[in-house]
Amino acid sequence: MDNNQLEKRYGLFTAICMVVGIVIGSGVFFKAQDILKYTGGNVLLGILAWVIGGIVMIICAFNFANFATKYLKVNGVVDYAEAIVGEKYAYMTGWFLSTIYFPAMTSVLAWVSARYTLVLFNPDADITSGLCMALGAFYLCLAYAINILSPKIAGKFQVSATIIKLIPLAIMVIVGTIVGLINGNTIDAFIQSVESTGSDFPSVFAGIAAAAFAYEGWIIATSINAELKNAKRNLPIALVAGTIIIMIIYITYFIGLTGGATVDILQTQGSTMAFKNLFGNVGGTILNVFIVVSCLGTLNGLMLANTRSVYSVAVRGQGPKPEMFSQVDAQTNMPASSGALSLIFCAGWFFYFYAANLTAPIFGIFSFDSSELPIITIYGMYVPIFFMFIIKEGKKNIFKNAVMPALALIASLFMVFVAIYAHGIRPYQAAAANGEFSFPVLFYLIVFAVIMAIGAAFYKKANKKK
Q1: How many CB atoms lie within 10 A of CB 126?
Q2: What percent of the chain has pLDDT over 70?
Q3: Buried b or exposed e, range 428-444, using 16+ CB within 10 angstroms
Q4: Domains in the chain, start-ordered, CATH in brackets?
Q5: What is the pTM of this model?
């Protein structure tokens, strides 16, 4: 085997677990509270936000599953961008994933894992403390070490964590729904939603942006297509089956929460109180342990993709020092140099996320939500891929190659609009009412433009050498 080729090590079950395991993590636990806040406690609008976000995910996953039957190289989404749009666009997509998307998502999960760990031992713990940051940094390094030194253990942990993280969700779906119907909390929540006049449909847009974080991650499974056995068959099955399972779990979990606490309590105190009300302090603590494992499982999956992201660019002879970052370690069969650089990117985004979420943010008005905006950006980058695929392949199969990509194109543009509303128009209106200015999406775009310009400079340099 070529020293720079990755081993075929994962089967279908692991791939499905990876899709479900990477997506289901911290997001469903703390974004449910945000969605209720955005919709003014309207459960029906909250469910609508989950449904719309889920449909967007399934439509896009269906198209990427179709791509997976046609293209197979090193890193799914980058391969698709190269085959459909072109080499330069593929490089810029890979650069975005390597420097912004994967590191930002991984750093957020490291912090969230630390947050839930501290709350496990002390419900009143300061989640913006130095201790939380130190623990998050430890989790970040631990996930990196496991994936680089023993990828097989990382894969097995992913399967185990997927099973464990489904336990609190399944319990809440079953017990919460039954109890909610008996005590009337669930019925009352739906009645209040029907009679509610305190929220409107535009609030759903902010809810969809929050749901995007909880739903994101399915695309990361495409990063192992070169390591997946019978990838052309197994990856499409894993993507479509996994995303449908996720949507069903999220919606039923959201409904189940109303059985454990009133909508007002869920808005202010989150899902923790629902678990404690249903299962007591001891039961609530045990389920909180499962939530920590859930977060760590998601962190592991993100780091798995993160360690391969720079490699996927370097193996094409692009980016900084491709001859170094395209090397695969002979002992572990892992791209160690790529992983090390990715860890540095993670550390930078970890510090930014922590500093931007302090009571007095270090970056002031230049603070933005790095947990949601990179996710919406990736939808924007899907647009040229779907468009060019229709142009090139649309006539060969009208449904698969034209209708579905067109729906995905519309869905992606819709997600971009959602981001502008939730992180631009909405905060601007709130700040303007107080005579202030806030347009976080603008500041994010400035950072995005600078990083992408640096990537373009590396591309230009590499092509001059060629």
Answers
A1: 10
A2: 91
A3: beeeeeeeeebbbbbbb
A4: 12-458 (1.20.1740.10)
A5: 0.85
